[in-house]
Amino acid sequence: MASNPSRDDDFPDDGDTYFDRDRSTENRFDASLLRASTRLLPTRHPLLFSPTHTVTQAMRAMQKEHRGCVLVTEDGSADTRVVGIFTERDVLLRIVDRGRNPATLPLAEVMTRDPEALPQDASVAWVLNKMCVGGFRHVPVVDRDGRPVYVVSVRDVVEMLVERFPREVLTLPPEYGADVARTREGA
User: Fold this and answer.
1) Enclosing H/E stretch for 83
2) For helices 124-134 and 154-164, what crossing angle results, to 10°?
3) The domain containing residue 141 runs over which residues?
4) What is the CATH number of the domain that holds 86?
């Protein structure tokens, strides 16, 4: 009896590596991708504010730059250490939900103080660990003195995966399941 190969046959049983023999090693998903530096991720400069800036100022910058967070440093510059992070989640849970006025509310009152951060030499696996275990969508990356270098977002990780595996992601049919032949019952 001949077996019908399924899509699952493309994946090894050990779960450690997915490798299509027709592709170069650039498009290989294995533990080495997770060990890669966060510098591999498509990051942008962080939006920096001081604790005395208002929530409205931070929200306007987030809207303008299409970002989900700002970092709060001692004086609002990249020359001082990160003392907080303010995210879109904070807007919903600490301001809107409590009826506070963002125009007069300083970031110091609603930011997450002393956020967990990673050093510049951290791996992609460490970013994913922080995001998964901590429930974070944004992880600050700092230098040895705690000064901001960049922020890694979930979006950055997704963009890296799409960039590494464009054929698998970008060539899908426009609708889920559209590539599966459907038969009419009773025909």
Assistant:
1) strand 82-87
2) 140
3) 43-163
4) 3.10.580.10
